[in-house]
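Human: I would love a firmer grasp of how sequence relates to backbone shape in proteins. Could you go through the record with me and say what the backbone is doing? Here is the record:
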Amino acid sequence: MDEANHSVVSEFVFLGLSDSWEMQLLLFLFSSVFYVASLMGNLLIVLSVTSDPRLHSPMYFLLGNLSIIDLISCSSTVPKMIYDLLRKDKTISFGGCVVQIFFIHTVGGTEIVLLISMAYDRYVAICKPLHYLSVMNPQRCILFLVTSWIIGLIHSVTQLAFVVGLPFCGPNELDSFFCDLPRFIKLACIETYTLGFMVTANSGFISVASFLILIISYIFIFVTVWKRSSGGVSRAFSTLLAHVTMVVLFFGPLIFFYVWPFPISHVDKFLAIFDAVITPFLNAVIYTQK
């Protein structure tokens, strides 16, 4: 009985994305190209924002930090996935799995709050332009950034506090290419339906609520811009469209993961690849084009 109460699983095995060697090679090339492009694109944004005095504004301050988050986000799962695509045995240690979950939920929670901060920045810039620099002063921008990271850390630690002590003594196969919380919980040696539902509902509620808040905010800003006839309307629409596109790209996969009641393995994997590899790249492309 004492042995049953302690974890005996020291590592987990990823089932990966495909059993076909040709498909794995194709995914290796695809993921490598987009990962390098994501790194270069987001690093370029960070370097540009920090080195160009013309970009020392609240909007670009938040954008630069969003790029840093994207760099951390894709680097927490993609290098391991690319490495495993060339290996027969795709394993990760118990501690490594917990670390992956920690970073995924920390940067995810941080990015959600930062996106809301960016929506507020656009609201002040477009709806109250005369007060923009006084409202979005450096102190407030730093406050938004610190708050984002604190909330992200609290979200991640709270999630892990409920699951890291679970006993794992049986199956250790994860039908994915990275450690995600719902599948991790299902491998525990005790009944985890209630805990799994609570964790999934928590992330699902946060994702849906934040998405609705952002969409409603941008609709309000769009209406405000539409009513104006100044020369900067087209530029404002371009900026807002970039923000909305990024919000949809970020929240779309999250809502499907945590809210859709009928999970489909291959669809989940496709969206996971899209979210981990392509979204950070598209974010960099969208913002450098606007």
The two ends are 62 Å apart (CA to CA).
